[in-house]
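Because discrete structure vocabularies remain unfamiliar, we reproduce here a specimen of the format, pairing a chain with its fold in token form:
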Amino acid sequence: MKNCLLALALLLAAVVPALAQTQLSDQARISLMTAAPGTMLYSLFGHSALRVYDPVLRLDRCYNFGTFDFEDPNFLLNFCRGRLRYYLDIEPYRYFEYGNLLEERVMQEQVLNLNAQQRQLLFDLLEVNALEENKYYLYDFFYDNCATRIRDVVEKVYLYQISFDTTFLPLGATMRDLLHPYLTNHPWTRFGIDLALGQPADRVALGRDYMFLPDHMRDMFARARVADTLPLVIEERQIPEWSLPPKPAPQHGFFGNPLWVMCLVAAVGFASMFSRRAERVFDVVFWFALGLAGLILFLLWFATDHTTTKNNWNLLWALPTHLLFFWRAKRTELTETYFTVVGAIALVTLVMWGFIPQDLPEAALPIVVLVVVKGLMRRYRSEA
């Protein structure tokens, strides 16, 4: 116990000099706010923030680690390269609540079991992190985001004495698996994400890894204990208290299903083989699109700081080198050898599909089959 008090005192001593300190009253409380997933891409996985409420000081604000600025110079380039700076933003709670209710996103508030000293320390740490020189960080979707930053600062205040219950979590789920329930109504988004994420996304998630998703962090906070005795959460409520009407599931139709669309593309590709002219036109478009996709995957692997787009096995069938050959109508030994090798690689990929240490998207299967046929049949057809 003495060691814990000493550590807390040292932590306070490090924080307090950095602030013109505001002393919270005894009626203050700090809560974890969890917003339900929204409909926009950036909100599909939910959101977390910390609320500091003190009726005596008339203070009610939210600390949000998931903020970025669209007007940052080179925003799009930095986003693609994994170098976009996120930051801790402070906003009045009423704005936070209004924004989520406007988007019909239900919120869960969990009041943390903090004594006066811990509340003050957590508040001071948040204020220090919100300073201009401290608030920016390089975002990592799985390991350093709006939820994990909250988990880390809360653990620090409790001197890492929080025990999280992981017994209710699905065993054997990978980081990629944890995303899929949120993408059920967004099949093309799921297809794109599964293409872009490489082998690191198929690592089996450890207990604390689940907390990169706000819903899982909320559930784990609800079951957590401090020093194996005290509950981490002492009060919980839903905002609004009534249930919002369920949103109807979107009707995607034929073109909303990537697998069906890829089957159609493959069917058109096979049909084009009965006409030299049609095949020539199709091949130019097909190999260019496939090469462009491969170039994007290649750049995500080698030209960005994203940790989860490395070692992407989708490059076995979407090779960027297609861009060097897609426009060559004249058949030479070089082009015939190239496409034969491409077809052979795709065939091996197809045979080993279930053994490759990455969950490749099933919607890509028709395209891989088409690559095999067009690659291996090209030399035969040219000689016929």
